[in-house]
């Protein structure tokens, strides 16, 4: 039956009649299902545009997101800064046979000004049959794959001319077998860097492996910046894990908010993100304490952040330190704040300045002459926590200085201001699914004369370590509100993005993407984010909905140039949800639509390392047209891609 013919002349009567008839039909067919929802889309009547940067990424050094995560370095504590009375973290002495050796930190000898201490391995007795040295356990193991090349380097020196070559190998902990081996010779009595390569053959892939460095003669051996990388995304030296980069790319993001979060602020002013000290050779990076209980290697430094955006072809949203740190220290606006403003101006110049500028020249010398396309700069992070009230003045001081040099930059405030209108306001929301269902209309009535909105962090927090289907439903429901209000909401980014699922890897529950050394998986929320990011038009057409359960949500966007309508449907109830859809105002509407559907057995259903795609999108073709019905399963998120030209 073509319900569109029942009352063709009067749209409202037609819609109500349509709903009543459809509901009656629906309820007589399946008593357990929800009442019919009717959606009427006026394809030829755009309400407003969709922000071209609506969905993006936010990460920081939390949950071993970079070290032990995205940043592909395999050696943990490569600069030996993590040590205490109990030992040198993640390093152990290895004496084979009757060799004798010990290790300790040499607090007074290091390879650079930035790294003024090192590991001292004191080999008292060793020979070719009885070598001695140290091993590194990696980030909960090291992923070793067959027929793969690994690139390594280390800084070393010795006190003897007789130490001989260093043997370097990857060892399978299950069997004790060597998976790849090489030697480094010529270690001298002065600090120098030595590079090496390890190549596996036909070995079994395992993450139960470690790196072993041994010598066959007695002597003292100092080591620092011991590094090993697998093949990386786009083969960048000092680069990122390919699987995680690919997972981000599949979300179709448009920006990366960087470098945090609390990680930007630091626990103290001294521990703020030290962008200048994250540039250049690793040996010149002193590393710094992060805010999430572990030190950052700073291998993923400012330039690597920017190159990450370049690899994904997205814009950097650069957050600059603004004089407030997590434990409450702040600097009032005025002369004391000026050095921090200057530091931010230099940082912006590093990212955007042409090679003739001072910091553009630094970037060029590091191999990247082309400026990065920064359009948004965020001033601080979550400054509502600064109870001194200093943010008003701090924001104004940064704003004035940045706008004077970069009038086109959009400057984001992290909390509402009383005395001035920021260009953009960063709102953060961490809620349960029910709260997001209640809050779907959050931006419907917000004043359009106020600042634009950046939802810089948000997530439905259900499920651990990664979120479950219930969380994905909360996210999807709330995203329908973001799309409906995408004239106001210019950007939104889920947080946190990453979690290392190993014991001790997580500081913040309910994350989007989980991984260990070897592999990774997306949570149901990851797939919801990906579906919303991938199927997004450039305008929001007029639409209306009637009926359906109280936990039914939808949004519509249209890609005018391609003549495609993307209808997103969220059924957060356990019952099937029948939906009657009318597509008006198009010359032709195709008789078939592509449907991408995400559903699962229940709210707690989820994906894990061992069952990574239990809940994953399924694509199919369904009947469509100017007027059609479709029934959603309980607990489902669906995108209908309808051709309407
Ligand atoms: O995403 C985790 C943390 O939540 C961020 O660091 C901080 O900005 C927020 O409080």
Beta fraction: 25-35%
Can you give the mean pLDDT?
Answer: 95
Helix content: 10-25%
Which structural category do the helix and sheet elements fall into? alpha/beta
Bound molecules: alpha-L-arabinofuranose
List low-pLDDT spans. 1-31
Shape: globular
What's the total count of β strands? 34
Count of helices? 10
Biggest pleated-sheet summary? 8 strands, parallel, barrel
CA-to-CA gap between the ends? 24 Å
Q: Give the C-alpha Rg.
A: 28 Å
Strand order of the largest sheet: 2-15-18-19-20-21-22-23
Task: Provide a brief overview of the structure.
The chain is an alpha/beta fold and 645 residues long. The protein has an 8-stranded parallel β-barrel, surrounded by 5 helices. The protein is globular, with a radius of gyration of 28 Å.
Describe the protein's architecture and organization.
This protein is an alpha/beta fold. Helices cover 18% and strands 33% of the residues. The protein contains ten helices and 34 strands. An eight-stranded parallel β-barrel has the order 2-15-18-19-20-21-22-23, surrounded by five helices. It has a five-stranded antiparallel sheet with strand order 5-8-13-10-11, with no helix packed on it. Helix 5 packs across helix 7 (391-405). The longest helix is centred in the first third of the chain and has 19 residues, at 11-29. 51% of the residues are buried. Mean pLDDT is 95; it is low at 1-31. Residues 60, 62, 260-262, 381-382, 457, 495-496, 508 line the site of alpha-L-arabinofuranose.
């Amino acid at each position: 039956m073509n319900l569109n013919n029942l009352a063709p002349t009067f749209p409202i009567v037609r819609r109500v009649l349509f709903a009543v008839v459809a509901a009656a039909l629906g309820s007589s067919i399946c008593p357990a299902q929800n009442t019919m929802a009717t959606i009427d889309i006026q394809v030829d009547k755009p309400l407003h545009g969709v922000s071209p940067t609506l969905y993006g990424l936010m990460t920081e050094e939390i949950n071993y997101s970079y070290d032990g995560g995205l940043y592909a370095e395999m050696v943990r504590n490569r600069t030996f800064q993590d040590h205490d009375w109990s030992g040198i973290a993640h390093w152990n002495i290895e004496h084979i046979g009757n060799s004798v050796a010990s290790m300790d930190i040499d607090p007074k000898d290091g390879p650079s000004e930035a790294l003024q201490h090192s590991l001292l391995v004191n080999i008292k007795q060793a020979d070719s049959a009885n070598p001695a040295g140290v091993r590194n356990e990696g980030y909960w193991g090291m992923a070793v794959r067959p027929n793969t090349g690994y690139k390594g380097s280390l800084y070393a020196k010795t006190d003897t001319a007789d130490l001989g070559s260093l043997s370097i190998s990857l060892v399978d902990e299950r069997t004790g077998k060597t998976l790849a081996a090489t030697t480094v010779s010529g270690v001298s009595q002065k600090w120098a860097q030595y590079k090496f390569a390890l190549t596996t053959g036909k070995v079994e892939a395992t993450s139960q492996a470690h790196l072993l460095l041994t010598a066959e003669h007695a002597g003292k051996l100092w080591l620092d910046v011991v590094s090993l990388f697998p093949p990386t995304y786009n083969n960048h030296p000092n680069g990122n894990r390919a699987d995680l980069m690919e997972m981000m790319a599949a979300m179709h993001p448009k920006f990366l908010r960087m470098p945090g979060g609390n990680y930007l602020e630091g626990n103290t002013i001294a521990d703020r993100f030290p962008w200048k000290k994250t540039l250049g050779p690793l040996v010149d990076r002193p590393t710094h304490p992060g805010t999430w209980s572990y030190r950052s290697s700073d291998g993923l430094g400012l330039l690597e952040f920017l190159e990450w955006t370049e690899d994904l072809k997205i814009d950097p949203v650069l957050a600059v330190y603004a004089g407030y740190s997590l434990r409450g220290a702040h600097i009032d606006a005025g002369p004391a704040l000026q050095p921090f403003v200057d530091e931010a101006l230099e940082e912006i110049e590093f990212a955007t300045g042409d090679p003739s500028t001072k910091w553009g020249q630094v970037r060029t010398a590091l191999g990247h002459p082309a400026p990065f396309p920064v359009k948004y700069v965020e001033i601080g992070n979550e400054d509502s926590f600064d109870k001194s009230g200093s943010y008003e003045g701090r924001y104004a001081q940064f704003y004035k200085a940045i706008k004077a040099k970069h009038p086109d930059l959009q400057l984001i405030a992290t909390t509402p201001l009383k005395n001035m209108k920021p260009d953009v306001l960063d709102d953060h929301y961490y809620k349960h699914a029910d709260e997001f269902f209640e809050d779907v209309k959050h931006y419907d009535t917000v004043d359009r004369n106020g600042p634009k909105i950046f939802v810089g962090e948000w997530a439905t927090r259900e499920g651990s370590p990664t979120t479950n289907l219930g969380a994905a439903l909360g996210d999807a429901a709330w995203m329908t509100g973001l799309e409906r209000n995408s004239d106001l909401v210019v950007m939104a980014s889920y947080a946190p993005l990453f979690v290392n699922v190993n014991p001790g890897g997580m500081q913040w529950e309910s994350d989007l993407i989980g991984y260990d050394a070897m592999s990774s998986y997306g949570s149901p929320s990851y797939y919801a984010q990906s579906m919303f990011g991938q199927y997004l038009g450039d305008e929001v057409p007029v639409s209306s909905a009637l009926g359906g359960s109280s936990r039914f949500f939808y949004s519509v966007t249209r890609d005018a140039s391609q003549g495609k309508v993307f209808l997103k449907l969220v059924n957060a109830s356990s019952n099937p949800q029948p939906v009657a859809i009318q597509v008006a105002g198009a010359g032709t509407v195709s008789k078939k639509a592509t449907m991408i559907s995400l559903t699962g057995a229940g709210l707690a259903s989820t994906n894990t390392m061992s069952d990574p795609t239990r809940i994953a999108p399924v694509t199919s073709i369904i009947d469509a047209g100017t007027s059609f019905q479709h029934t959603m399963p309980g607990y489902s998120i669906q995108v209908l891609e309808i051709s309407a030209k």
